[in-house]
Amino acid sequence: MMKIFKYLKKYTFLIIIAITFVVFQGLTNLYLPDLMSDIVNSGVVRGNVDYIVNVGLKMLLVTLLNVAAAIISTYFAAKVAMLLGKDLRSMVFTRVMNFSLHEIDKFGTSTLITRNTNDITQIQTVIFMILRLVSLAPVISIGGTIMAVSKSPKLSTVLLVAIPVMSLAVYLIAKYTMPLFRSMQKKLDTLNRILRENLTGVRVIRAFAKTKYEKKRFENANEDLTQTALKVNRIFALVFPLIMLIMNFTIIFLIWYGAVEVDKSALQVGDIMAVMQYVLQIMFSFIMISMIFIFLPRASASAERVYEVINSKTSIKDPEKPMKPLGNGKIEFKNVTFYYEQAKEPALKDISFESKPGEFIGIIGSSGSGKSTLANLLLRFYDVTDGEILIDGVDIRKLSQKELREMISLVPSRPVIFSGTIEENVRIGKKDATEEEIVEALKIAQAWEFVSKLPEGIKTHVSQGGTNLSGGQKQRLAIARGIIGRKNIYIFDDSFSALDFKTDSKVRMALREKLKNSTVFVISLRAATIMNSDKIIVLDKGQIVGLGTHKQLMKTSEVYREIVFSQLSKEEIA
Ligand SMILES: Nc1ncnc2c1ncn2[C@@H]1O[C@H](COP(=O)(O)OP(=O)(O)OP(=O)(O)O)[C@@H](O)[C@H]1O
Fold first, then answer.
1. Residue 347 beta carbon below 6 angstroms from any ligand 1 atom
2. Is the domain of 303 the same as that of 394?
3. Could you tell me if the CB of 370 is within 6 A of ligand 1?
4. Residue 513's pLDDT is what?
């Protein structure tokens, strides 16, 4: 939590205003019982109506000041908490945007969402409470004790018992609820993860008739969270009545002992009432502190989680003096080996090959053979474990990530469609693209045939995730987006898998013409898609087991032959 406090520094002025008014509120709180005892002792007991009216008006004014101070301090405390929340949210968001895939894998998306929403709300709540209550409680407890003792030192001795008992209650609450709140946060993460998986995978779940199973999974996680929350509430259910009991006993004692003192004429009635109010105020301030202890552990667990994100270094950094890529996209993989975090086997092992602009390179291999990993390394989503990747003779780690990625266009295997129009979706690939360029890209991607039939053409709205489009239509839009800008390198990562053979071949032919000056990587599981490439890389268990043209590989690569024979007829192969 302390680490998060440093982000409050720039709001020092607002904090000072909030605390000043809280202190003022506390002082007016303490003044009221004093005025009240005065009314009783000098007004009510003596029947002096003028005195009652005078002091009564004074009490009214003090009350109004008290309310005004409470409103102002609440406003500023809330403002500080909200501004801090806003800062933290944008810090977390910016950090996550700069994360490499390695950090995204490490944290997981669900927890990153919870950290940026629920966790920051917890911090905001506790900051608000600290500003309001933590400064009010000492003023009331110290000031209240002084005032109570000044009214009647004898009656105030009750505090000697009440304060240690209340402190013990606060300590017990903190001790037993702290670990429970920490575990609640983790359980909330799990619940969010299951919810997210269910929402994104709703079609698969229904198709495989797994609704019941998923419902059970969600219910288990929900039950787990509820049980922990119930444990916390059981502690409160036990401790709060206990606190009320202590308070009521204290009042009984004060009335009894006060009555004895009044009887002896050692004390006035008004003073008993004032002491009673002071003691109650002091005890309430302890309850306030215990409220902080309830929220603080939860918020400090949240603060740790938020700080972990803000403070985590991205493993992929730009060099201090980035070099400029010279040339038009000659690529060289030199003995590249790559392990995913905590993986025992390398995803790629000793990969070496070269490619020149104008070449169409097919990458084929069974599922899990390392094809997408190869594309991820070229884009520097991950850094190689060993070896190097050169573009125009320069190690990609010596280029700025922005410049490197500006040279490359990636059409991922799962097309990402944003809510907006078709035009807006394609324009992501080139900000200033004209309408003609958009239509041309759609034509090359063979998407124009369905887009032109839509009532609003390229202005047609697509929903988030492209749910109102078919798989093949989404892929074609993603291809149009990928090719609209001029790039040196294009990577189509299994981007034709949802297209029928005829459309697949039409798209490839159109791409050949449009991208003839660039290096084009076509990753596919289908031999027909990559057969006509200038060069084919055959991957198997992360290693290159064949490199050459279709004809050469048919003679030299056993793995390639197996793939081809399993997919194509003799006529197609020839
Ligand atoms: N983020 C990741 N963390 C850990 N291991 C991963 C990660 N991504 C992929 N792998 C592993 O690396 C290996 C290669 O995966 P990759 O995605 O490159 O295969 P692929 O050939 O593209 O497969 P597919 O054709 O099914 O997409 C696989 O064994 C996979 O389990």
1. yes
2. no
3. yes
4. 81
In terms of residue numbers, what domain contains 560? 544-574
Cα separation values, 557 from 523, 566, 569, 574, Å: 18, 14, 18, 17
Same-domain pairing of 421 and 305? no
Domain count, the chain: 3
> Ligand 1: which residue has its CA nearest to atom 12?
347
C-beta of 116 in contact with ligand 1 (< 6 A): no
Q: Of the residues 109, 371, 526, which should be mutated to test ligand 1's pocket, given the most ligand atoms within 8 Å of the CB?
A: 371
pLDDT in tens, 353-405: 999 888 999 999 888 889 999 999 999 999 999 999 999 889 999 998 888 88
Q: Is residue 320 part of a domain?
A: no
Q: Give pLDDT < 70 ranges for the chain.
A: 568-574
Q: Is the ipTM of this complex over 0.85?
A: yes
Regarding beta strands 360-365 and 348-355, do their DSSP bridges make them parallel or antiparallel, or are they unpaired?
unpaired
Nearest protein Cα to ligand 1, atom 2: 340
pLDDT at 176: 84
What is the CA(381)–ligand 1 centre distance, in A? 13
Q: Please tell me whether residues 486 and 433 are part of one structural domain.
A: yes
Of ligand 1's listed atoms, the one at least distance from the Cα of 365 is 21
Q: Residue 117 gets which letter from DSSP?
A: I
**Number of residues written out for the chain:** 574
pTM of the model: 0.71
Cα 360–chain centre separation:
40
The whole-angstrom separation of Cα 483 and Cα 32 is 75
